[in-house]
Amino acid sequence: MDQHGADAVRWYMLAAGSPWSARRVGHDAISDVVRKTLLTYWNTVSFFTLYAKASDFKLGANSAPLSTMDKWITSELNELIAGVDQAYAAYDSQEAGKLIAGFIDDLSNWYVRRSRRKFWDGESAALETLYNCLKELTLLMAPMVPFITEHVWQELVRNLEPSVVESVHLANFPESNSNLVDLPLSKSVRLSRRLVELGRAARAESKVKIRQPLSRALVAASGWSEMNEEIRSHISDELNVISLDELASAGGELVSISVKANFKSLGARYGADVQEISKAIAASDHSILVKQLRANTTVAFAYGSKSADLTLEDLVVTETPKEGWSVASHSGESVALDLELTPQLIESGLVREVIRAIQENRKQSNFDISDRINVSYGANPEVLEVIKKNLELIGAETLTVNFQEVGGKSDSSNELGLWLELSKA
To answer: What are residue 351's phi and psi, to 5 degrees?
Structure first.
């Protein structure tokens, strides 16, 4: 209790396991749940406070329409409220904690991550959406972690809404609005996150760093065609690829397709015929079958003297790109990365490395997020040439107003040989 605090111990006992089951309690176990959930919640509150202050955010000033991501996290929030309400009503604090922890991960590691540019620009719609999520989340967590939620209520909520009740523990419990729940959107975002994980695995397999842009990624997944452009752009950004396309569009010269029957799906509908259907699927032209299903959703598939209505859910599809590509697949979903590096892509990768180095130096120098800076730099000739060609882009990304090249300076401690000196403008 003295080391971790009352809220950490309460959360561990109530949410990280069944409160009536015997278990071992130790510093490492409590630290782990604090790091994964309570600290992430606190850091998200701090993030909001920082950007709200920088943009002079006022609650209720937003008149702009909500973005796709704003709608998604609002949908997830209303599902969370309903789920936690049911869990509390059933005295199931473990289920409530599981739902809250999952939402905190969604909020911090996807909504905030994917909306960071909007917070940087001070967009009121994103700030108001994040505030509403934090307010409702604080109310949901209050029964289990009363002290940190009370602090957030006093320092955040009452500052933006002075008329609210004086304590989080006197406020009404949130109510879910089913009209704001968008299940197809939630499904699409979940798919995008799975594809990003597959793309990262393909990156790791190829040993190409994430800051090195690639020309394209090819995707194979049920639900890809329904995914909107904003969500697709998140996949492009996360994987640092210029374009996305469907894997089947690459043609047979780039991809090998193999198909197996999904016994669980087919067995439920066709029973004893599933073995015969499986043999027919194995003997079919896999590329043509998958192409037909992606074009028509359902295909009448002949086996023996009978016919089965197949969908993509009835198949386990594995698509493997050939040489010059890296692929990762799981449960019928695949992402393939084109590994060819052109001079333009290599230059873009160097620019990203320079931006990252300046941003890291800004952080270490304790500059405010809105501070404009001067940058003196030196590097090897190749990197110097790239910096000079991209000063405008680097300046916009790092809030640099003046660049000064310093001849003869370099730093052997990094692979770019990049030497930096920053000062406030």
So the answer is: -60, -45
Q: Which of 387, 377, 359, 367 is closest to 420 using CA atoms?
A: 377
- CA–CA separation, 154 vs 161, rounded Å? 10
CA distance 181 to 101: 19
Residues whose CB falls within 8 Å of the CB of residue 345, separated by 6 or more in sequence, listed in order:
212, 213, 214, 215
One-letter amino acid identity for 199?
G
Retrieve residue 390's tokens.
Answer: 């991209």
Instruction: Tell me the two tokens of residue 294.
Output: 């992606």
Q: Is 248 exposed, middle or buried (0-12, 13-18, 19+ CB in 10 A)?
A: buried
pTM here is 0.78
Residue 98 phi/psi, 5-degree rounding, is -65, -45
Spatial distance between the Cα atoms of 340 and 213, rounded to a whole number of angstroms: 10
Choose the most confident range, by mean pLDDT, from 26-30, 142-146, 365-369.
142-146
Which pLDDT score is estimated for 22? 64
What tokens does 405 get?
């090249």
Distance CA 204, CA 202 (A): 5
